[in-house]
## 1
Amino acid sequence: MSPKTTRAPWINWALFFGTVIVVFLLGLLASSIVERRAESEYVYKPRVELSEYEPRNDLWGENFPREYQSYLQTADTGFRSEFNGSAPSDALAEHPNMVVLWAGYAFSKDYMAPRGHFYAITDIRNTLRTGAPKGPDDGPQPNTCWTCKSPDVPRLLEQMGPAEFYKGKWAAKGHEVVNYIGCADCHDPKTMDLRITRPALVEAFKAMGKDISKASHQEMRSLVCAQCHVEYYFDKKNPAAPEVPYLTFPWKFGMTADSSLKYYETYGFTDFTHAVSKAPILKAQHPDYEVFMTGIHAQRGVACADCHMPYVREGGQKFTSHRITSPLSNISGTCQVSHRESEEALRNNVYERQRKVMELRNRAETALVRAHVEARAAWEAGATEEEMKNSLQHIRHAQWYWDYAVAGHGNAFHSPVEVSRLLGLSVSEANEARLLIARTLASHGKNEAVPLPDISTKEKAQAFIGLDMAALRAEKSEFIRTVLPEWDRKASEREAGYKIQKEKP
């Protein structure tokens, strides 16, 4: 018979209190789960019914307050990195060479670094590039320029169709396109699924033999950005819409700078004739998506939203921050999600790449400016079109590679290897143009070096290419004072007539 075992009293008390603590903690956990579930149901319970293409962001905010409140933070322009940011920045003042490179094109008048989606309507209205139209049929820009500026555009595209929307002048739709970039640009109002609202992207995929409807959710988290952050041109030879500036992405042969150049050469397209050199110039827009796709992050499956719209938590909710901004403004929530280095190390990694690219950029711009000025000297010396043909073609290619490399937002970090390659090609093409021009000058008895004008400031560069900036600014100020209030009045009347969404019980 085994001896009877006894347990010390303190052990029983320890078991008792341990059980009480475990039960208490389990109760807290259950309560938290119930509370978070209730919070989730409350937050995401739709309060208003949204029409298929509702352009007013504040109404979407009734149903998705956290996302909307984070989006409103894009109005903050306080962030500035070493080379960019959301703060207002005059790119022409920082890089006066660009004034000469774009001589004969609207960008030589005014080019402010983009402040963000919140200011899309304000900035396109105020920039000198859109001129000072006095009526709906007045120039200089086509209506197509509105395409990426507002959720009013999907509404109008649905009502009118792409060809009809693209038709006409920019001023004709000024009272229709008034809501800044927002929810309806990227989301289905019923399911909140990401969707493509600009037909140009769908058409570009089709031209490459691809079906965009088969894109994964992760791919869509970049493709909604690719609706606008891409290279494009206005095609007036589209058989479905002759003479209409039809928005087109030059992707038929692929999405690289080289394939786009091949496309433009094949179709004989030129954006403008350079006012100094007479070269047929291609103006790259902002090929952010294409350049990003050549970089290491895209190759590892990272999407635009992963870094520019990271996930955040608030209470029991995990949601995508819609404060679309530079990842450098929130390194702990972006870069450090995947990388374990310090914030300082990660920031310096970015700057190191950008500084090296900037060095190449400056060399390319200097060589290009010299090529344009020397080409003008050759024309003045009596050069013929046949003598200048090859030189101008090299200038065209040099400027295309330079512009493609620098026009994108963040290209120097998205794909520093590819951007460095493009800038290297630009320098090479520009130097080849200069060599040919030197031979042409020599054949006309001009052997001395062509002097460069003083273009050390934006103002001096604009004077060199013949711009009357005082007159341009005066015309724009009058437009802002007299025309914009009328646009806003008409827009208010139209929006007041919208069907009022009923609040759900």
## 2
Amino acid sequence: MIHCLRTTHSLNVSKHMTKPTCRLCKKEKDLIKKSHIMSEFLHKDLFDENHKLISFEPIELLKTNPRISRPSSGSYEGGLLCKECDNEVIGKYETYASKLLNGKLSKKEKIRCNFAKSIDGINLLELSDLNYSSLKLFLLSLLWRAHISSRDEYRDVALGPYADKIGKALLDENPGADNDIIITITKLDPTAGFSTFIGQPIRHKVEQTTQYSIIINGYIVVYYLKENRLSKRINHQKLTEDGTLTIMEIPKDKVSPFVMKYVGVAK
């Protein structure tokens, strides 16, 4: 019979509970439960009197009485960003864009607007004295947030190596040169009925290059990840480092066919 000396001891097991990683700063932090993908202020005119978002499928645009749903808020997702990255990093770009769109810029921030016409009679809005860095980084943040989202409406956005490039730009407050991810904005005639419409981001392929577009409240924002023939053609309309931007307005009779093609309802 084997006799063993019985001893007792306490076993100290250190359980290292790792925190999730923020998609922007890449640090292990507590993540917030509600990060808006498309900034909530962009939905301002899309809410009804009960603060319910007016939402509909693209095919409904063709109907006389479109079927409308009313979710309680804009598109958001939890577990993506830490509080600092959401509220402070991206938040400061949202603040500028919100003041710009709502006409609440300070005297020091005021921009200049000039209304003109192209040689073929197209209305043009020429903006100057824009904060190039803040506006471009805000617009880039929308595309980047769509990329990191798992929501179905953003499934078309897959930035590949550009995701880290844009993320670093957001953290470093460095928008890059105006020919490094070119951004243009085009306006839809406000009487055409699409001023309260936010479309899901669409990916386009042109000359082996990728570009994205998003319709936001009557404006089409286009991101050219690399220069192509289209970006060269409208080079004079892009957001530039000197704070200028020319916005072309699509005439009313051309808006509906364009939007139908954009959302895939028509070819």
## 3
Amino acid sequence: MPDTVEAFKNSLIQHGGENDRVYLMKLADADMPGLVPSLIRYAHLAGYGKIFAKVPAKHRDAFVHKGFRLEGEIPGFYNNTRDAVFLGYYLDAERKREKKPELVEEVLEISREKSRQEEPVPLPPELTCRVTTPEDAEAMAELYRAVFASYPFPIHDADYLRQTMAENLVYFGVWEGGTLIALSSAEMDVAAGNAEMTDFATLPECRGRGIAQHLLQEMEAEMATRNIRSLYTIARAYSHGMNITFAKNGYRYGGTLTHNTDISGSLESMNLWYKHLPEPV
């Protein structure tokens, strides 16, 4: 059962058993400071193991004073002017302790070594890349089912994909002939001028061809045309590939979210990476 997205007072949360958490996605200033104890009470009553909060930095102390710990920061997250902080509150003490600290550090070390602005990666001539349409949704859902056994959002459902296309997501696909072999998406917050670069998936037999890096470059170009300047991702902290891809493309490390997200049936820690696109001249 996918997690539920719904209003919490004037703010927006996602919650459910798959990720065993409450995720404060958007905080309404009018809800502060009373929202913090209400959120903790809600998570306790529901039996969740973690609260994950993405909030403007000006509210950091209100959360920290109630037991949240700072796990990440992105400067200029809101319209390239106001910073965001990413905070964790652990109702499950075991979940607070990183289970693979050496691997997390290894992934970051290798990614930092490769942290440089790459030249544009040409797409192999046998492949084509474009923004997807609602007519692609069935093939997209099939690809996501093939790559991910479980996922924080119901991307296995074609109706969900069509719905989010009509709202605030732009999906990008790569085809080999008539076969869809890779996907990604940009989840835009137009009012805040930022986008999460997410939902990367490439069929296992098609990896190793620079497809993810090309997708990322296509996504950045599209976001620039939409006046989206702050870009970020939340990448699997135990997986070298996507962390290296973002580091190579000039993204900076913003922190690690411990045991934050259910991926393919188990909770994994996630790394924040961010980048600011230049203003148009």
